[in-house]
Amino acid sequence: MSSSTQSTLASAPASGSGLIYASSHITNPDLTPDVFDEWYSEHHIPDVLATGCVSHAARWECADKDSSVVDPYLATYRVPDLQSLQSTEFASIPMTHELLPGGSKAGEGGKACHESVDFDSTIYKLVEVFEKEKHDEGVSFPRSAVLPSCPDLACTVMAY
Q: Would the pTM of this model clear 0.70, i.e. be above it?
């Protein structure tokens, strides 16, 4: 049975800052990639940011459209305090929406996102940060750069 809100974590995560890594793929043929993008970018991400538990969110899509990668979509969420993921605010993130298959603009609320999308989420605790150079305070996050050691692979890094 799907919940209409985000479930809390089974155990308290470590303290300190961290990252939520959520890869996904659409499982319901009635959910188009455009509608999924609209729900994720215009509704889900703002709901997550509104909790105050996450300071930054970024969405990614597999760059190789011909790839057989299982989860072509990725969202990363910067979490300043992992303990906040146990909060009522985080647990209250809506997981249903009228844009998702089964819903209507008339306000039925839609089906739970987990009924149309398979999410694989992992929470990571920050261990160490490496920087080639100090970043300007005025530069907004995220900031990525191609690593000089692997330009052919277009490896990227995100600064915290």
A: yes
